Amino acid sequence: MMIKSEVSKNSFLLFFSIIVCNCVFAQAKPNIVFIFSDDHAYQSISAYNSRLAKLAPTPNIDRIAKDGMLFQKCYVTNSLCTPSRATLLTGTHSHINGVRNLSDRLSPQITFPAILHDLGYQTALVGKWHLKSDPVGFDYWDILINQGQYYNPDFVSAGGTSRVTGYATDLITDKALSWLGERKKDKPFLMMIHHKAPHRPWEKGPAHLSLYEDVTFPEPETLFDDYSGRGTPAKKQEMSIDKNMTLRSDLKIHTNPEDDKLYARLNAEQLAAVKKVYDPITAQFQSLNLSGEALVKWKYQRYMRDYLAVVRSVDDNVGRVLDYLDKNGLSKNTLVIYCSDQGFYLGEHGWFDKRFMYEESFRTPLLMKWPGVIKKGSVNNDLVSNLDFAQTFIEMAGGKAPERMQGLSLLPVMKGHTPSSWRKSLYYHYYDHPAEHNVPKHEGVATKEYKLISFYELGEWELYDLRKDPHEMHNEYANPAYLSVVKNMKLELDKLKRQYKAEHSTD
Ligand code: CA
Hints:
The chain is an alpha/beta fold. About 35% of the residues lie in helices and about 15% in strands. Helix 2 (about 60-65) packs across helix 9, helix 5 runs parallel beside helix 11 and helix 6 (about 170-180) runs parallel beside helix 9.
């Protein structure tokens, strides 16, 4: 009996130690909070110290860089909402995951949240999804329908659809914090917080309706770009503040009672607050009778006041998440990331929107903090990509990325030990044409020094010398002085296309 009892006691102790070890191991795995915004230009994050930094600061997003790393050269593979999200989840280029255009659906395939789930993570997603199919690999998901609404949006979860009163950026954060409070405390978690903001039409939240109304923002040097140094695509795009930004829906100048139908989503209280701000602006606009450059300048100021106020509410809500992690003792073992699905033009080249491989839309903001792993206040200048996130998270979770994934784990970069073999060039391919904004299909290759772009359906090439011409105003493709650069960049493009198993579109 005694022997049996001893065995039983020892078995219990062994069983108990395994449970304890598993829990300790599980808790040691880092949590991941991935905060993702839509169309958030790096030029409007004050950590990047652009022309807008002092007048429209983002103190909370900046906290991530202050406590961690600011990435100066993060780029996307295809500068558009839906394709960028597919690349984030699958770690593959658009031609591999099949999501090339805005209207494409993500088919069933390997994604990093499902892998993290298999590795013992609790996984959650709140906010904009925009991939048509339901999210897979999440314990909890609660998403906006397509683009979603800024005011009183409908959310869809596994349990159905519900309309929630309030402002999208606040509501998405409320839901994320609520899930964090209810999660199982003995397991690591992945929390993806995907904001709708600051996507067009830049509807400000109730807390920021008047925020920048007295501020005049500096214009970019290229606001009145005449595209003389560029080819057909820059001349024929339909994304200019002058010609394509609408007074009515983009800038909320409502001169006809019918125009207020755009506010059909708002309740009486919300509508009254919005009209209190925009009715006097409309009256002033009508009295000014602007045209030409003066009208462009006025539209630019309206655009910036709306866009930057929308960004401010994102920033406030990033602060809520960081405070929650601090107060609940989670900051130490959590990687916090802030980034956007792509960059955006804030008047550079006279534009809004994205799509082009030119710098402002090709590049995206990226800030990370992870105490004890990422050095506080560090700045990174390596070429990194939204292709890299999936593999980074899988490696952090103790897994191995599937062969199919095409990025690189950022872990050595985050630790300040970028290998000497790190990538020296990036491949880009934009497909969504014909479509809104009239940006032709193009692919290209970029190094830190040069960018070669092929608008292959037009048979037009562009080469930019990024050191001499950072604003990309002079196409050097036909300049004999760049003959060998063109040749080398074409070889690099071919090499990347073979490496990524890309289609042949330029031959
Ligand atoms: Ca977007």
